[in-house]
Amino acid sequence: MDKLLIRGGRRLQGEVAISGAKNAALPELCAALLTADPVVLANVPRLQDVATMQRLIANMGVAIERQGDGRMRIDASELNTPEAPYELVKTMRASVLALGPLLARFG
Question: Which of 2, 44, 95, 100 has its CA 20 to 30 A from that of 82?
Fold first, then answer.
């Protein structure tokens, strides 16, 4: 890993808040379909693609609770419909990420 070495001036200190990444959140949402146990994801960004994936898997019977602190609780124990409406699927290429977990659960 590269690093920056800064000499002189004031000593750097403080905190930086890193926002969640869509490209990480979408596969994580789909990975939650693999288990019947509740999954809690932290730092989930509020983006259109994340909301679309949320609607997509909720349509299959998955309970999703969005919490105010950026966390999302996913409970796929009631996942009962391994099909998604085309109207939702066609709006997002990442919807194919749900195929692997659905195949693993339903064969």
Answer: 44
For residue 36, tell me if it sits in a domain: yes
How many structural domains are present in the chain?
Answer: 1
Encode pLDDT of 13-65 as tens digits.
Answer: 888 878 889 899 999 999 999 999 999 999 999 999 999 999 999 999 999 99
pTM of the predicted structure, to 2 decimals = 0.80
Burial label, 57 (beta-carbon count in 10 A; 0-12, 13-18, 19+): buried
Give the structural domain span for 95.
22-106
**CATH number of the structural domain spanning residue 54:** 3.65.10.10
User: Among residues 29, 35, 33, 27, which one has the least CA distance to residue 101?
Assistant: 33
CB atoms within 10 A of CB 89: 15
Query: Which token pair is 20?
Result: 């969640």
